[in-house]
Design brief:
about 120 residues; mainly alpha
Length: about 120
């Protein structure tokens, strides 16, 4: 693979860090813009990784919310703090991924459903 351009490094960093504010929207936009460009494969891989991690987070949050509703809030004792922990861990992982991308290093989140191939 050829050297990753500074623009691609910056966009890769934005793909990961934008998820803190925009959720899956930032990585999705970057992936959609670049997915068919042959010279942007590293950036496509990074944006897909960020997108897949955000989809995984959405599934987890949805499942925990449903669990809280189904148990009429009884599971809230567990799901509330668990959601907070997941949120904090995800912020840390977004930052780590963004810093790796800034240096042109590919990052794989430790847990993510890889739905977008």
């Amino acid at each position: 693979m050829s050297e990753v351009s500074q623009d691609d490094k910056t966009m890769g960093m934005i793909a990961h860090l934008s998820a803190i504010v925009t959720g899956f929207i930032g990585p999705l936009v970057i992936w959609l813009i670049n997915k068919d460009k042959e010279d942007k494969q590293w950036l496509v891989t990074e944006s897909k990784e960020a997108l897949n991690f955000n989809i995984t987070l959405a599934i987890i949050y949805f499942a925990l919310t449903v669990l809280g509703i189904v148990t009429l809030g009884m599971a809230g004792i567990i799901t509330g703090p668990l959601m907070l922990i997941i949120w904090v861990v995800s912020i840390v992982l977004f930052i780590v991924a963004g810093l790796k991308a800034k240096d042109g290093v590919s990052y794989r989140y430790p847990f993510a459903f890889r739905l977008i191939k």
